[in-house]
Design goal:
- The structure is a single chain.
- Strands 1, 2, 3, 4, 5, 6, 7, 8, 9, 10, 11, 12 and 13 form a 13-stranded antiparallel beta sheet that branches.
- The chain has one domain (2-255).
- The protein is an alpha+beta fold and 256 residues long.
- Helix content is 17%, strand content 48%.
């Protein structure tokens, strides 16, 4: 199930940019709309953040035992620096955990999927290799569609349903060239410093004959002059049972 979960982590990180649209926007092009959306989303790196480190404690539900207990994983530290131009790196930060080299590599590989939780990419960066058009232009609810320029990339299409009256994207759909072929999500938002951040995403996708439901909740707090991630809870389940659940807690931010 871990491999399935990893496939959808990118979904969470695509949803992080808050999609806010001026009611006066002429809908001249999807690219213009994306620039408008980016201008109203809270990117810490665009608020003056230059570098940071943060310690992350994370727990994983003991699904096999059915006890409902969460088991601690080795804590990690995330480092990011704007001048380096990378998405940041994770390192194990507690030597008291005895972890084999193979397990260490597995943990760090998995956590690379969570880089954008701390430092999200802009929508323009994420869609740089996609061609956009306005799929439908219903009053107050246009659908922006983006198709990959490269036919070999995993994510081939994105559709964004924009609610102009509420000034946000109500729904998100992604199409892939391998299973799951389609992922649908609804998003709930919060405002910080006058800009939007994702508070919750609820997604549905199918693998084989099984439907999966993923819910991710985000909590933010101030770290210095910035709004940063404080806690993230992610759960994947079917109609019958929980498949996987993680809790991430972010502490001891060192900024700039």
């Amino acid at each position: 199930m871990n491999s399935i979960l990893k496939r959808f982590l990118f979904l969470i990180f695509f949803l992080l940019p808050v999609l806010f649209l001026s009611s006066a926007h002429a809908l001249e092009s999807p690219e213009q709309i994306i620039r408008e959306l980016d201008a109203h989303y809270y990117y810490p790196q665009q608020q003056g953040l230059k570098k940071l480190s943060v310690q992350i404690d994370w727990e994983q539900l003991d699904v096999s035992s059915g006890s409902g207990r969460y088991l601690r994983n080795p804590p990690v530290t995330f480092f990011w620096e704007r001048s380096v131009g990378s998405k940041g790196v994770f390192t194990l930060s507690d030597s008291s955990f005895e972890v084999s080299l193979e397990r260490k590599r597995e943990i760090l590989r998995m956590l690379q999927n969570y880089q954008e939780i701390v430092i999200p990419q802009t929508l323009a960066e994420k869609l740089a290799n996609y061609k956009g058009h306005i799929k439908t232009a219903k009053k107050r609810q246009p659908v922006l569609a983006f198709s990959a320029l490269n036919p070999d990339v995993a994510i081939q299409k994105y559709d964004l349903l924009v609610d102009l009256k509420q000034k946000k994207v109500r729904r998100f759909r992604m199409k892939r060239n391998s299973a799951p072929l389609e992922v649908k999500s609804d998003i709930r938002y919060t405002r910080k410093a006058g800009k939007w951040l994702t508070a919750e995403s609820r997604s549905k996708f199918r693998v084989g004959e099984v439907d999966y439901f993923e819910t991710t909740e985000f909590v933010y707090r101030r770290a210095g002059n910035f709004w940063m991630m404080s806690k993230m809870t992610q759960t994947v389940k079917t109609d019958e049972r929980i498949i996987q659940s993680f809790i991430f807690r972010f502490r001891n931010y060192q900024i700039n």
